[in-house]
Amino acid sequence: MPSSPVEVHLQSTKRVLFRDQDGKIFDSDIANPTTSGTEQAKFHCQSMPTGSAFDEAVAASGLFPSRLLHLPPKNPRIQRPRDKSFDSFKTCSGKLEGQLSNLRGKSREIGQEANTVQNVEVETLPAHRYFDALEGPELDTLRASEEILLPEDQWWPFLLRFPVSSFGICLGVGSQAILWKTLAMSPSMKFLLVSLGVNLVLWCIAVALVATVFFTYMLKVIFYFEAVRREYYHPVRINYFFAPWIALLFLVLGVPPSIAQNIHSALWYILMTPIFCLELKIYGQWMSGGQRKLSMVANPSNHLSVVGNFVGALLGASMGLKEGPIFFFAVGLAHYTVLFVTLYQRLPTNETLPKELHPVFFLFVAAPSVASMAWARIQGSFDYGSRIAYFIALFLYFSLAVRVNFFRGFRFSLAWWAYTFPMTGAAVATIKYSNEVPNVVTKSLSVLLTAISTVVVTWLLVTTVLHAFVLRDLFPNDIAIAISDQRPKAHPHKWFHRRTGSSDKDIENFLKFTNSDGKDIEASMMPPSSIPKGVDSSSTTEVHCHVSQFYHDH
């Protein structure tokens, strides 16, 4: 008797052509019922293997065509476990899914859990962890000795890669709507014949853009709240949480007259409430000290936390309010003075910004530009206080504009959008000043700054669309939110530095004073300045050689 029914099946077979539903023809071997001389053995019925067992049996026998071997598994939910690498950053962190599975009576298998990536519980990181794990002026570059919680070799979900700095796009486009509204309604700019239709088109684009960015980031808040919380506790990223509310203030300031003539003052209180709450937190940290004090976290993006005061004061004064705008103007003026001095001296690290972040210097222009317009609106005229603030902004603008090489050779970054509205603010302030001092110089300067601002925003808009839809690299993996809450273990080779006691200064001296022939290495550790006068350097080299030989022998 053969050992299995398969052996009997192979003893007498014939080829028959089959045609599947797709019209493809393939052959297979089936038993020949007319074969004589062989008594077929009888076997008892057994259960047919199903699922993956059936697929393995078919693959082992080789009797079925190869097309059937690539069929999808019967139950992909069971055969292919879901990737849980990003569950730790989700709002529920996988806990809700586990509860729902238990309610359905489906307990998770132990073996399946062993094959999945273990979720790391995301905790609120202290400020010093961001400084220890990240580097760069905006703390967005991972140090070489650090590791992240998310996989580095694959693209993360889009919402995880969508940063809060995306609201900077709304600031740039919204400020353009204000600029062209001012051009169309200013008496000194009547010769340009600018229509309010341009303001209407730009305002509609800004509204659509703000709605899109708001909706996308709200999805991130809903599904990846842990990632949003990490951005909020980031010492630099927290400043960008002012950007959504400043963008809404820009929309109210730039609303076309054909849509709304008078806006209720209640809207001002609604928009300024979140700005006031954020300022209580940030300004309190600046003053109380610790890891988040101003001298530690000072960055040009801190201007966003100050500009909101002046924009709010400008809008409130435009609505006819008095005390509220003066309050926010005073708060902004006090903290801008401290921030200006801190950033001017570069107290935290005394390191220069990389080329990619050189446009951030234009944020120095934003606060005095908007402050001049806000005070002029509060006082009712472009008086001496407004002119002092405007002249400060104009000087800072010129001091940056003349440094042409300062803005060459850098690559595109999404954070640049937050630095376009200072140029627009300077142009709007110049137009306001030309209304008070109408002459050829002020009018020409208004046209020049308007042209520069429009060209820069247009170029950034085209570049952003190119990187978003053509190059598809506008939103890379956001490393800053994926750092671990613990320091990595020390590298096993770091004992060498502790044993030899060498420092960076010793290595620098070695590289600086070593001979080209490289015959004596230890002698190069002593710079020529440390060799006494009257002593030949060759004899010094010989002494070092003898000392080295002595330690080698002993």
What does this protein structure show overall?
The chain has about 550 residues and is mostly helical. Helix 9 packs antiparallel against helix 11 and helix 11 packs parallel to helix 14. The strands form 2 sheets. A two-stranded antiparallel ribbon has the order 1-2. The chain has a two-stranded antiparallel ribbon with strand order 3-4. It has 22 helices and 4 strands. It is globular and about 65 Å long. One of its GO terms (cellular component) is plasma membrane. Its main location: membrane. Belongs to the SLAC1 S-type anion channel family.
Write the SSE topology.
Elements: H1 5-11, E1 13-19, E2 25-31, H2 52-61, H3 76-79, H4 95-103, H5 110-115, H6 127-133, E3 134-135, E4 141-142, H7 158-161, H8 167-185, H9 196-223, H10 225-233, H11 243-253, H12 266-288, H13 294-297, H14 303-318, H15 323-345, H16 363-379, H17 384-401, H18 421-436, H19 440-470, H20 495-500, H21 504-513, H22 537-553
Antiparallel strand pairs: 1-2, 3-4
Helix pairs in contact: 8-9, 8-11, 8-18, 8-19, 9-10, 9-11, 11-14, 12-14, 14-15, 14-16, 15-16, 16-17, 16-18, 17-18, 18-19
Transmembrane segments: 158-180, 200-219, 240-260, 266-283, 304-321, 327-345, 357-376, 388-407, 414-433, 445-471
Membrane topology: Multi-pass membrane protein
Family: Belongs to the SLAC1 S-type anion channel family.
Roughly how many Å is the radius of gyration? 35 Å
The backbone outline, from C-alpha atoms, is globular
- Chain-averaged pLDDT: 75
Structural class: mainly alpha
The topology string of helices and strands comes to HEEHHHHHEEHHHHHHHHHHHHHHHH
| Biggest sheet descriptor | 2 strands, antiparallel
